[in-house]
Write a structure and sequence with these properties.
Elements (H helix, E strand, L loop, with lengths): L2 H17 L4 H23 L22
Length: about 70
Amino acid sequence: MRADVYFNDLAERCRYWSRYTFDLTAAREFRELAQELEAKAQQARRSPTKYDVPDQPSGSDGAHRRGS
């Protein structure tokens, strides 16, 4: 898996949880983490050989959005 795609996916998950948590402190932390991950994704796009991210195991296909 390409590193920029991986970091963007993690950022998307953080943004999802920042919207659906009732804990405002946690929501802020998720948003900040998403921003950091998006910055990492941009860095990975600029220098693709710097980051080596292994493929995710077959259980991480967005199950967090389906209520699992």
